[in-house]
Amino acid sequence: MMHHVLNNSLRLRRKLICDRLRGIDGIRWSPNDELLCIWCSSPAEPKLIIYSNTLEKHVTAFSPLKTAQPSETCNYGKELKGIENIEWIPSGQLLAVIGFNEVVVLLNHITWQPLSKLYMDPVIRECNYLTKVYKEYADSEKVSNKRFASCEERVLREIHERPICIEIGKKDDNDNFSIAKIKLFEFSTCGQYLALKHELYPTTLWIWDICTDYLDYLLLENPITAIKWSPVHPRLFVLSECTRVYEWTRKGANSVPLSKNMSIIDAYWHPSGEKVALCGYNKAMIYETMNTF
After folding, report:
1. Is 224 exposed, middle or buried (0-12, 13-18, 19+ CB in 10 A)?
2. Could you tell me if 162 and 145 are in contact, meaning their C-beta atoms sit under 8 angstroms apart?
3. Which Gene3D superfamilies match (predicted)?
4. What angle do CA 256, 165, 243 make, to 5 degrees?
């Protein structure tokens, strides 16, 4: 009887005819569920349309082929190519459009025109004096009398030399056809920061301040497997399946050593933002954060 009731409760509310798209490769609701983004990733005709649930009509369309992007010195005129994916800012006022060529464009929710652009350049240059780079090193104080440094004996240090060539990861020998993509991308809860990791650079995390257009970089030893923003503060935990986590705030970055017998594979923030559950393969722990904002 219950199964019969559930089936009868389903009704077709509206049919959307996306005749301006060659195909549909993805859809995403805005945070307030008023707008629906529908996009086609075809390199020949990439396009996204925005459908308004309240107005019950398409409100705009965006195509990388028809929109001229501003050319900043640090971006070297790199243009958005195709549409790989999209991500809404938590407030719904910006839409990040991710291309297939390591370019991300932010669209304004009123004009739907590009406001800013990020190119994930494999070389860290001196074009922005606010850029900070944190690199993982062996802790020399702890390993001075040891031949090898373990995962627990590593620290993050800010480095100032430029340029820096970002390390490229090893390609899977069995994967001959796939296109390298941006695997991790997530806005902070406040919407000011966007953290990204590209498949080509598995040990590097870009943290983009979309208000000031500066970047922080985390250069780690192990491939980054997950990123977790605090639900309250602009605080980010970065995981790489080792016995420590990496913590970033706008004041800096550091490594947090934990249990020597526990590799961290996932994390879940408490709604208060004051503690986080860290999960291993067969263990878990509660880590209480410190207010360092």
Report:
1. buried
2. no
3. YVTN repeat-like/Quinoprotein amine dehydrogenase
4. 20
Token pair for 17: 């005819």
Ramachandran area for residue 250 (φ above 0: left; ψ -120 to 50: alpha; else beta): alpha
Residue 270 lies in a domain: no
Contacts of 47 (CB under 8 A, 6+ apart): 20, 21, 22, 39, 40, 61, 62, 63, 83
132 part of a folded domain: no
- 204 beta partners: 219
What does the block give as tokens for 150?
């373990």
Length of the chain: 293
In the three-class reduction of DSSP (H, G, I as helix; E, B as strand; rest coil), residue 41 is classed as coil
Asked if residue 43 lies in contact with residue 62, where contact means CB atoms within 8 angstroms, the answer is no
**Is 26 in contact with 39 (CB distance < 8 Å)?**
yes
Residue 5: CB atoms within 10 Å: 8
Report the C-alpha gap between 242 and 264 in whole angstroms. 6
- Contact assessment for residue 267 and residue 279, using Cβ atoms and an 8 Å cutoff: yes
Q: Is residue 101 part of a domain?
A: yes
Structural domain boundaries, residue 105:
16-68+75-119
When divided into structural domains, the chain yields a total of: 1
Residue by residue, pLDDT tens for the chain (293 residues) are: 445 544 556 665 667 767 678 889 999 999 999 999 999 998 888 999 999 988 888 899 999 887 654 444 444 568 899 999 999 999 999 999 999 999 999 999 889 999 999 999 999 998 877 899 999 998 765 554 544 444 457 899 999 999 999 999 876 656 655 677 899 999 999 999 999 999 999 999 999 999 999 999 999 999 999 999 999 999 999 999 999 999 999 999 999 888 778 899 999 999 999 999 999 999 999 999 877 65
| Residue type at 84 in one-letter notation | E
Residue 195 counted as domain residue: no
